[in-house]
Automatic annotation (TrEMBL):
The gene is metXA. NCBIfam families: homoserO_Ac_trn (TIGR01392), PRK00175.1 (NF001209). Substrate binds at residues 229, 358. Belongs to the AB hydrolase superfamily. MetX family. Transfers an acetyl group from acetyl-CoA to L-homoserine, forming acetyl-L-homoserine. Residues 49-363 form the AB hydrolase-1 domain. PANTHER family: HOMOSERINE O-ACETYLTRANSFERASE. Its EC number is 2.3.1.31. It comes from the Bacteria. The active site is at residues 159, 324, 357. InterPro entries: AB_hydrolase_1 (IPR000073), AB_hydrolase_fold (IPR029058), HAT_MetX-like (IPR008220). Homodimer. This is Homoserine O-acetyltransferase. GO terms for molecular function: homoserine O-acetyltransferase activity.
Length: 384
């Protein structure tokens, strides 16, 4: 029986290995633990210029260089580099693949181990433990400790990355000088959980799902995973962005048909789905979406969100986008309210944009100036 894991080839990612593993919120432990990461710029002698960037659901550690499986540009290369908001001449930028991911950090594609950490000869698959955003952050903390960094200049991230930023500030406040949660929320809403469940159901309904053991036959539930990506991608855009980019333009179909793409937007979504399955594992998708669904920072503090930040000395920069209906500005304002109630140092900006949730990944000069100014101000205060 084959244990080849389709659909993409193995990549020799840069990784830190932790034989002792990691205890998880669910009560299980993973050992050994691998955290795949990339760095940009140089760590200064005082080790005071490190910025950790946390990626979103379908992101990875390759934020400022071509993705090794697709060759596409890094997902945040527009703001990483000399003279850019994440200035590699000034800062040491770190980005790690999240726990449960499929780009080198320990996840469902990796070999399963027993309670003593002994390999069992097959991938974890659906037996991979339930992980939380806090588990992801604990794994990242192991990485920063491994790199000899006691306190990060900043932790920055959007969407699920923003959830990780909030968890960093709540769980390791003394290890974070500044935090920039972008286009995110302190909990995952019922609407967002519902969208995730549509995606998960489409994966489960794929004939190649095989109960999550598709890897045994060298298969991948490509149709289901593609639909999950298509549904999610719609939520990342705004109606204005879709109208501007596609409108109701046709692809030249001469008659009404359900057998081919008629509208350009259909072709675009199918392309998004087909390219996604070449770089992402279905079991990782299930694991990570569920981690987002579990996230509720207030629940971790008996329903008291300000308590998550009480006494913090971390400086916060919270940003939202006016057309983002996945993580609307009201949810960013709730974070700001909690930070104010905790007497935290916080600045907030809502960026006027018609690009939807994905605006934080795109060319938005006002956002870039605001984030760059915040980080530069923090660096100035620390003498970096």
């Amino acid at each position: 029986m084959s244990t080849h894991v389709a659909p993409f080839p193995q990549v020799d990612h840069q990784r830190a290995l932790f034989p002792e593993g990691l205890a998880l919120d669910c009560g299980m432990a993973i050992a050994p633990l691998a955290v795949a990461y990339r760095t940009y710029g140089r760590l200064n002698a005082a080790r005071s210029n490190a910025i950790l960037v946390c990626h979103a659901l379908t992101g990875d550690q390759y934020l400022a260089e071509p993705q090794p499986l697709t060759g596409k540009p890094g997902w945040w290369q527009t703001i990483v580099g000399p003279g850019r908001p994440l200035d590699t001449d000034r800062y040491f930028i770190i980005c790690a693949n999240v726990l449960g991911g499929c780009m080198g950090s320990t996840g469902p594609r990796d070999e399963m181990t027993d309670a003593e950490g002994r390999p069992m000869g097959r991938p974890w698959g659906t037996d991979f433990p339930n992980v939380t955003i806090r588990d992801m952050v604990r794994a990242q903390k192991k990485l920063t400790d491994h790199l000899g960094i006691e306190r990060l200049l900043a932790v920055v991230g959007g969407s699920m990355g923003g959830m990780q930023v909030l968890e960093w500030a709540a769980t390791f406040p003394d290890a974070v000088y500044a935090a920039a949660p972008i286009a995110t929320a302190a909990y995952h809403s019922a609407q967002n959980i519902a969208f995730h469940e549509v995606g998960r159901t489409s994966i489960h309904a794929d004939p190649d799902w095989r109960g999550g053991r598709y890897w045994e036959e060298g298969l991948v539930p490509a149709k289901g995973l593609s639909v999950a990506r298509m549904v999610a991608h719609i939520t990342y855009l705004s109606e204005q962005a879709l109208t501007r980019k596609f409108g109701r333009r046709l692809r030249g179909a001469s008659a009404l048909t359900f057998l081919e793409d008629v509208f350009e937007v259909e072709s675009y979504l199918r392309h998004q789905g087909s390219t996604f399955v070449r770089r992402f594992d279905a079991n990782s998708y299930l694991t990570i979406t569920r981690a987002m669904d579990y996230f509720d920072l207030a629940a971790e503090h008996n329903g008291d969100l300000p308590a998550a930040f009480r006494g913090t000395r971390t400086r916060f920069f919270v940003a939202s986008f006016s057309s983002d209906w996945l993580f609307p500005t009201t949810e960013s304002r709730a974070i700001v309210w909690a930070l104010n109630a905790a007497a935290a140092n916080v600045s907030f900006v809502e960026i006027a944009s018609d690009k939807g949730h994905d605006a934080f990944l795109l060319e938005e000069p006002d956002f870039h100036r605001a984030l760059g100014g915040f980080l530069a101000g923090c660096a100035d205060r620390l003498g970096v």
